Amino acid sequence: MQRIDKLKEYLQAQPGDAFLQHALALEYIKLGDDATARQYFETLLAAQPGYVGSYYHLGKLLERNAEREAAIGCYEKGMAVAKAAKDMHAYNELQAAWEDLTDE
């Protein structure tokens, strides 16, 4: 929890910092608290939809929670954002996750 407390402290000082929100979400995933992680990812992506790295992790979280259609939508949105940003590495990761989920 020390790490989470420190990240929250930093986030209080810089409330719009996407990296800190993303990092907090990942810490909550490590703790098995998908509900809180999801809140952080969704808040981040609502405010900064161009933060492409969060789409993959949110999609995986949705998959773990048996929200297949939501995960597919998340990957699709992330692919569109990654393509627009010309971030082909992120695009390829999102596409692979999307294909794994839709090829069933």
Walk me through the structure:
With 104 residues, the chain is mostly helical. The chain has one domain (2-102): Tetratricopeptide repeat domain (Serine Threonine Protein Phosphatase 5, Tetratricopeptide repeat, Alpha Horseshoe). 80% of the residues lie in helices and 0% in strands. It is built from 6 helices and no strands. It has helices spanning 2-13, 18-30, 34-47, 53-64, 68-84, 88-102. The radius of gyration is 14 Å and the shape is globular. The N and C termini lie far apart (38 Å).
**Span between termini:** 38 Å
As a whole number of angstroms, the C-alpha radius of gyration is 14 Å
Order of helices and strands: HHHHHH
CATH fold field value: Serine Threonine Protein Phosphatase 5, Tetratricopeptide repeat
- Tally the structural domains: 1
Q: What is the name of the CATH class?
A: Mainly Alpha
What's the SSE blueprint?
Blueprint: H1 2-13, H2 18-30, H3 34-47, H4 53-64, H5 68-84, H6 88-102
Helix pairs in contact: 1-2, 2-3, 3-4, 4-5, 4-6, 5-6
Quick structural gist:
The protein is mainly α.
Output the keywords.
6 helices, 104 residues, 80% helix, 0% strand, mainly alpha
